[in-house]
Amino acid sequence: MSDAVQSLSRFLPELILMGALAVVIVADLFTQRRPLKSSTDLLNGIALVGLLGALVTSWQALGAGEAQPLFASMLADDGLLGVFRPIFCLTSIVVLLLGMRSKELEGVRLGEMLALLLTVTAALMWMAGSVNLVMIYLSLETVSVASYLMVGYLSSDRLSNEASLKYILFGAVSTGAMLFGLSLLYGMTGTLDLYGVRAALAEGAFGPGLLFVLILIAAGIGFKIAAAPFHFWCPDVYTGAPTPVTAFLSVGPKAAGFAVLIRFFYLGMAEPAGGGAIAPVGGADWQMLLMMLAVITMTLGNVAALLQTNVKRLLAYSSIAHAGTMLMAACVLSVDGVQAIAAYLAIYLFMNLGAFAVVILAHRVTGSFEIDSYAGFWKRSPLLTVAMGIFLFSLMGIPPFAGFLAKWYVFAAVINAGLGWLAVIGVLNAAVAAFYYVKVLRVMVIDQETGPTPALAFSRLDLALLVVLVVPNVLGLLFWGSLDRVTEVSQTLLELG
Amino acid sequence: MESMASAAIFYGVAALVLGSALYVVVGRNLVHSAFALVAAFFGVAVFYVYLGADFLAGAQVLIYVGGILTLLLFGVMLTNRIYNLNLRSGAIQVVPGALSAGLVFALLVWIIQSVDWGAMDAGDPGPTSESIGRLLVGDYLLPFEIASVLLLIALMGAAMLVRRRGSRS
Lengths: 497, 169
Hints:
The complex is a heterodimer of chains A (about 500) and B (about 170).
Chain A: H1 2-8, H2 12-30, H3 36-61, E1 68-70, E2 75-77, H4 79-101, H5 111-129, H6 133-151, H7 158-189, H8 194-203, H9 207-225, H10 233-240, H11 243-268, E3 270-272, E4 278-280, H12 286-306, H13 311-330, H14 335-366, H15 377-380, H16 382-396, H17 402-416, H18 420-445, H19 460-474, H20 480-490
Antiparallel strand pairs in A: 1-2, 3-4
Chain B: H1 2-26, H2 30-50, H3 54-78, H4 94-114, H5 129-136, H6 141-162
Helix pairs in contact in B: 1-2, 2-3
């Protein structure tokens, strides 16, 4: 019991989120009869305060104090969790602000949505901290259930319902596969603790049986990060969900999925081999498995994105491609890969949410998500066009934008690990990606608009949001210092156990 | 003699579970499928008894057979036009489906045969509820609490989904 009480002090961001959740639920109950605007503003305010509190406490906790296990070794409060907590908080804050400006969510009561957002943010942190098979499954399932509900939030919208249903069906199958894999793993090793699993695997070779288990578990994780061939839900769900939710799904659960991937494979399936490197145990070649996933995911995401005419679908395939790039870094088998993934996610957060912010603001005027509806945007709003240009160039990985830094970290790690051929495939993919990102820009700048062109007006919130998202992309190189802080603490991953 | 009877009951129950689970999938009448699910869940409770998990067996009967299935049956029976609902199940892609299912089955059999599961004879396991209770407020306190958060949002989500369609504010 004293262990649980002691753990609470290292559990502050999650506690704040749960507190905010309770307040939002109660406040939602008491404001049912108030006008929609005032009750929504109040609830948004409460949720925002909660998320900001979690962000501040998680930023303070970053790199402070020794790594230590929490709650009888259910979670590990180490550098990896430290890095991911602020990423989740920032994502949710931006998504909350996007939700306030989204036309799709106008006139809808947001109480449940905010409660779901707070829950899912905390659940993402539990995912990133899990070092126990039960915790991995439970936190993943909490994220999934909350995500299904957020996707289907617009109960009067047919597309939103369809997306939610597809998401549930795919989610049920892949978490089922993962759970089966986890239970087989428990049968093989006799323990639920990841460090215990590693110790048990180190003693004997399990060969093909273990590989099968790993494929099942990779299906569950691959579903969360939208890696091919577990990506089929992704385009439809991204298109059907309310756009702020799409923005959230493209960053939050993906980041947490990578945290679980790193923990499961780097801690549970491998042992430290000195110098920050790790060596797989148990006789299953999971590096090859991840490399195959990376190549398929990157290539499929980029090639399919070329054919898209809907900007949400395009960003869906682009997010699949980015998952592939990060998977490349996961094949490195040393903390360099962890560092690259953490840095990539921190930057990806700003560039991808930025692109979605532009999509949401443009939707307010055009009422459409088709790329063709962006024709002539350069004349209607140079500001929005320039912002989109910056986000897309950053996603492409073109210097001097931050996306270049992200790609550079990944490719450096991959090449240093002697996986040159993988890096070559990655570079070829990055070249393909440039085509479809430029296509969007070409429509915005060169194509002439047809029909009436209502003027674009921005509120102060829009401008503030764009500035917050653009600055890290433009000045990525200046933020090197804080990025280094992020990557340094991720090095402590292998300290525990 | 006793082990013979025990094995006979085990294989009988296994056949019941498999048969009724199969009927749930291929059956064309939703109400019949729901009743077949009762049999499948009940058979699983018997497996738990075989494994010495008395608490789980009780929970399985109380929660799945008693609670969830009754709700499911209510849901099915309160739905309009349930009897003339044309369920399309199992009619598409029979051959590839059967092939991949057979392949997965063969793979599983092979893996279950080849892996050393470290099984041991636990003897008479005795009642388990006390140790489960201790674990839930001890080592597994955090998963226990997180499960309550999961149930909370599931509850909220259910309320959200049944709210009248298109009711805006």
